[in-house]
Amino acid sequence: MSALSIKPGASRKSAYDLRDPNADLTETHTLTVLVDNEAGVLARVIGLFSGRGYNIESLTVAEVDHEGHRSRITIVTRGTPAVIEQIKAQLGRIVPVHEVHDLTVEGPSVERELALFKVVGAGDKRIEALRLAEIFRANVVDSTLESFTFEMTGTSEKIDAFAELMRPLGLDKTARTGIVALKRGPSL
């Protein structure tokens, strides 16, 4: 039988059907990585992801220890449990990495995101945008006769919900920081 023939009754598998059979088993995980604050560290971390085809859904980084020159990178990524374990192990092997934590499995954590929304409109739409901003506890950080810029901090779901409500009211631009997270309770 040639390599191109198909047995009777066998189903054909398309070359375009390259979906991962474990795709339904993927999970979203929030990882925090404590690193030395030096040139090239973020590029090495991102290179680990891109070189292996892992996606980063959210990425934030900032110095958290001025005296120790350390930064915290918060990464939200998706993968099967085996892929997540592989990511954590590979991150831990990068030389300037001091700690890797998977907040998704280590217990309760606090996750927040900051977003800015520019809403352009007049009349009733403007009044409705202000009313919704008050309900969502968004702050007006800039105002003109034609637009408002709102600032909001909260979960990604809260920010998504606010954006959906602002769309029909004239949402023009959105800027988001990405997720920052810490484990609840005392650190061990």
From TrEMBL:
Segments forming a coiled coil: none
Recorded GO molecular functions are:
acetolactate synthase activity; acetolactate synthase regulator activity
Q: Which GO terms describe its biological process?
A: isoleucine biosynthetic process; L-valine biosynthetic process
Pathway(s) where this gene product acts? Amino-acid biosynthesis; L-isoleucine biosynthesis; L-isoleucine from 2-oxobutanoate: step 1/4; Amino-acid biosynthesis; L-valine biosynthesis; L-valine from pyruvate: step 1/4
Which positions, given as ranges, span the membrane? Answer: none
Q: Which UniProt keywords apply?
A: Amino-acid biosynthesis, Branched-chain amino acid biosynthesis, Transferase
User: Cross-referenced Pfam families, in alphabetical order?
Assistant: ACT_AHAS_ss (PF22629), ALS_ss_C (PF10369)
Q: By its UniProt entry, which InterPro entries does this protein fall under?
A: Acetalactate_synth_ssu (IPR004789), Acetolactate_synth/TF_NikR_C (IPR027271), Acetolactate_synth_ssu_C (IPR019455), ACT-like_dom_sf (IPR045865), ACT_dom (IPR002912), AHAS_ACT (IPR039557), AHAS_small-like_ACT (IPR054480)
Name the Enzyme Commission number(s) assigned to this protein: 2.2.1.6
Outline the extent of the ACT domain: 30-105
**GO CC term (a single one):** cytosol
- The UniProt record lists the keyword Amino-acid biosynthesis: yes
* PROSITE patterns for the chain: ACT
Q: What does this protein do?
A: Catalyzes the conversion of 2 pyruvate molecules into acetolactate in the first common step of the biosynthetic pathway of the branched-amino acids such as leucine, isoleucine, and valine.
What PANTHER family does the database record attribute to this sequence?
ACETOLACTATE SYNTHASE SMALL SUBUNIT, ACETOLACTATE SYNTHASE SMALL SUBUNIT 1, CHLOROPLASTIC
- Quaternary arrangement and interactors, per the entry? Dimer of large and small chains.
The UniProt entry's sequence similarity note says:
Belongs to the acetolactate synthase small subunit family.
This protein is called Acetolactate synthase small subunit
What gene, per UniProt, encodes this protein? ilvH
